[in-house]
Specification:
heterodimer, A: 445 residues, mainly beta, four-stranded antiparallel sheet, 4% helix, B: 241 residues, mainly alpha, 51% helix, globular, Cell division cycle associated 4 (chain B), cell division (chain B), cell cycle (chain B), E2F-SERTA_domain_protein (chain B)
């Protein structure tokens, strides 16, 4: 699949950061998510801020702004906190954002840091009332004794204002760090998962949640496995999956019992004994799991590959796509510099025919499941000139390096693309490269 | 640490991109690399960010790697053959407070506090149909330490130390720390000597820099630690009433 960047927008986060008093690190994007229609794109960053972009309506009078995304709303979702009992800071970094399906004019999203989930309402205001009886236009209270006549306030148009307000705060339910939130298809409940537990919430109730998975061992010394990601099935409201640091995925049915410690299905690929090393377990740890839009498949991301699973086949994945197999011989160095613990996400396109995930050196990879073709692209300022097509990149694994190829040793492991998102319907993708956001549009030649 | 291009190889693994060890496919080379990996892993476990809670997933994965290495070394019987000269290459400053830091790291993961408060002053998790999670939080205030006495001598000093690390991580009563250090057990200190390159069984590195906690003298030392112990005690009483 060819991807052009005709209408791509390069958002430079440096401009936004000037408005805050945060440290430079606060700008690192930590999550990216399209809403259900794709008209809104939310990003969360390390500084606890959420920035929402809105797609411009296609306009005949402005042909160049075909579907550009511009900033719609910015707000501070989470602040740093201090846990006095443990004498530790709680980071304000936004780990995940998930949109709720739109039910009225306002938009709702859930954003979470390590400990607290918040439901935000984003609403537009383009009118304001004038002519109050009890207060002046500038808000000062009028002396009641001076009011001699009553009038009806009039609604007048005003410049569009987008307001974000926290509607619910779901706190104090997680001892460990929240890694996932997932809205249920019933649109009333959602789950939140930390390293050892998964809780079920009702969107209206903040002082109570139900624990549905608990893998904390009686004796913490016996802890060898943690939960790494969890997601609800897109259509079956009683089904969810969670992945582990040992490379397993468990599918659970909430109808079977209140505590879903026993899985209904267990997905694990048998290990290849010939490639076993001390790093085998670490690279098998699943960093992300996503259901396909159809609900028939799911995808898991481990350190070196992406696997597509058929929910009806637990014994092995349907497809395995190598993301950067050339790193297999570098695992020791990657262990030393901690890169081996990087958690890459993955995403499906709207029709489930393609999947995308990030890599190093600002590279990201796309796999077309139908044609079996894959492509490596780069998200960087140099390669993203306006109206230029992204050139496919290639990593040279050995021998003679061809022109335009990059050798493995030249890869910049500080430039990692962990978060990507795909528009639910169109060929539009969002790629977060550290503190830059790139939005690309795909065109068929 | 690793020189550029030095990679860990399985025995018999053929690929070597840098060619640095192309000719050295001997077992001792593998042992050296394995030992380096072990050292690196232990340092990673110890160097935890003290301001923010460390990543539990990462800690678990590293700990599992350490266990794997230790198991293999035990099977090989190579553990016993490690001598200070051969394996002691880590500089002293690399080995920061072992049990203290690891303990803090795992404690912050919520292993330590008492039930009710143990799950982070939880008011959330409730299930009508299954026991409240917070109440389930088991407490092993002393068992971790008593397990030190269980017969494990045959599995090598390293294994014992690793267990000490893990058990201490779970320990809620800081008083146990002093007992840990008072357990002047030669295999443990041999490991320490080995890893820090200090010959002669001098006082172990871990305690360096930790105010008030003298390794050789058991009993309450650091006021900070005893304060935590009292807090723990108070919390236990509060919760149990």
């Amino acid at each position: 699949m060819e991807v052009e960047s005709d209408s791509h927008i390069h958002m430079c986060w440096q401009v936004l950061s000037a408005r805050t008093k945060k440290w430079p690190l606060a700008d690192i994007i930590s999550t990216v998510e399209f809403n259900y229609s794709g008209d809104l794109l939310a990003t969360g960053d390390k500084g606890g801020r959420v920035v929402i972009f809105q797609r411009e309506q296609e306009n005949k009078s402005r042909p160049h702004s075909r579907g550009e995304y511009n900033v719609y709303s910015t707000f501070q979702s989470h602040e740093p906190e201090f846990d006095y009992l443990k004498s530790l800071e709680i980071e304000e970094k936004i780990n995940k954002i998930r949109w709720l399906p739109q039910q009225n004019a306002a938009h709702f999203l859930l954003s979470t840091n390590d400990k607290t989930i918040k439901l935000w309402k984003i609403s537009e205001r383009d009118k304001r009332a004038e002519g109050y009886n009890l207060k002046d236009e500038d808000g000062r209270l009028r002396d009641p004794f001076r009011i001699t006549a009553l009038r009806v306030p009039i609604l007048k148009p005003m410049d569009l204002m987008v307001e974000a307000s926290p509607r619910r705060i779901f706190a104090n339910a997680h001892t460990y760090h929240i890694n996932s939130i997932s809205v249920n298809s019933d649109h009333e409940t959602y789950l939140s998962a930390d390293d050892l537990r998964i809780n079920l919430w009702h969107l209206e109730i903040t002082d109570r949640s139900f624990n549905i998975v608990d893998i904390k061992p009686a004796n913490m010394e016996e802890l060898t496995e943690v939960i790494t990601a969890a997601e609800f099935h897109p259509h079956q409201c009683n089904v969810f999956v969670y992945s582990s640091s040992k490379g397993t995925i468990r599918l659970c049915d909430m109808r079977s019992s209140a505590l879903c410690d026993r899985h209904s299905k267990f997905f694990e690929e048998p290990e290849d004994p010939s490639s076993r090393s001390f790093f085998s377990e670490i690279i098998s740890s699943i960093s992300d799991v996503k259901f396909s839009h159809s609900g028939r498949y799911m995808m898991s991301r481990d350190y070196l590959s992406v696997k597509v699973w058929d929910l009806n086949m637990e014994s092995r994945p349907l497809e395995t796509h190598q993301v950067h197999e050339y790193l297999r011989s570098k695992l020791c160095s990657l262990y030393e510099n901690d890169c081996i613990f990087d958690k890459f996400e993955c995403c499906w396109n709207g029709s489930d025919s393609a999947i995308m995930t990030g890599s190093y050196n600002n590279f990201f990879r796309m796999f077309d499941r139908d044609t079996r073709r894959d492509v490596t692209l780069e998200a960087s300022r140099e390669s993203s000139k306006p109206r230029a097509s992204l050139k496919p990149r290639k990593v040279c694994t050995g021998g003679k390096r061809k022109k335009d190829e990059i050798s493995v040793d030249s890869l910049d492991f500080n430039k990692k693309i962990l978060h990507t998102a795909w528009h639910p319907a169109d060929s539009v993708i969002a790629v977060a490269a550290t503190n830059n956001l790139y939005i690309f549009q795909g065109k068929i030649n | 640490m690793f020189t550029r291009g030095l990679k860990r190889k399985c025995v018999g693994h053929e690929e070597d991109m840098e060619g640095a060890l192309a000719g050295l496919k001997t077992v001792s080379s593998y042992s050296l690399q394995r030992q380096s990996l072990l050292d690196m892993s232990l340092v990673k476990l110890q160097l935890c960010h003290m301001l923010v809670e460390p990543n539990l997933c990462r800690s678990v994965l590293i700990a599992n790697t350490v266990r794997q290495i230790q198991e293999e070394m035990t099977q090989d019987g190579t553990w016993r053959s490690v001598t200070p000269q051969e394996a002691g290459r880590a500089p002293l400053d690399r080995l920061v407070s072992t049990e203290i830091l690891c303990r803090s790291a795992w404690e912050q993961e919520g292993a330590r506090p008492a039930p009710g408060l143990g799950d982070g002053h939880v008011q959330g998790p409730v299930s009508d149909l299954c026991p409240v999670t917070s109440a389930q939080a088991p407490r092993h205030p002393q068992s971790g330490i008593w397990e030190l006495d269980s017969p494990r001598e045959d599995r090598g000093g390293f294994h014992k130390s690793l267990d000490q690390i893990f058990e201490t991580l779970e320990t809620k009563n800081p008083g146990c720390m002093e007992e840990l250090f008072s357990d002047v057990d030669s295999p443990y200190y041999d490991l320490d000597t080995v890893l820090t390159g200090m010959v002669g069984g001098a006082r172990p590195g871990p305690c360096e820099g930790l105010e008030g906690l003298a390794p050789a003298t058991p009993g309450p030392s650091s006021s900070c630690k005893s304060d935590l112990g009292e807090l723990d005690h108070v919390v236990e009483i509060l919760v149990e009433t």
